[in-house]
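not sure who needs this but someone in the group chat was asking about Nucleoside diphosphate kinase from Apibacter muscae so here u go. i didnt clean anything up, its just raw.
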Amino acid sequence: KNLTLTMIKPDAVKNGYMGNIINDITNAGFTIIALRLTQLTSQDAKKFYSIHKDKPFFKNLVEFMTSGPIVAAVLKKENAVEEFRKLIGATNPKNAEEGTLRKKYAESMERNAIHGSDSDENARIESLFHFAEKEIYLD
Ligand code: GTP
Ligand code: MG
């Protein structure tokens, strides 16, 4: 598959990095085929991150992800999931390589600026979580 779902997280939007991050994403060869600025409700965030519901950081993660607007987007590129996770870097920005988006824009393990789907199956589920099919531009 050639699609992935990203979210520019509340920290990065608040810090004014939305434009820079979109620019970095398109410069890296990804095409944006759906895009929206929105704010997650607590119910949305719990559903989106339900895989982490038993983790100690779950409550903080939901609070953080609902703390302000986010930008959700569907991105297209060959090998999109793997390529995009390379572009964003390690979950903890301290471990993220130079030039990755988390190295450039993230504040901490939790406030880590950007999300990327971790599998083709989740890319599809997450894209349909944020967008109706008719809102995703598939040529
Ligand atoms: P996402 O792209 O956001 O899914 O990040 P990821 O796939 O790199 O990490 P993962 O799915 O394991 O965790 C989801 C999110 O939970 C991370 O992006 C962090 O914001 C947060 N998180 C993960 N592990 C920790 C942790 O140990 N402590 C805290 N405070 N937050 C964590
Ligand atoms: Mg993840």
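also The pocket of guanosine-5'-triphosphate (ligand 1) is lined by residues 52, 57, 60-61, 91, 109-110, 112, 115-116, 118 (CB under 6 Å). if thats useful
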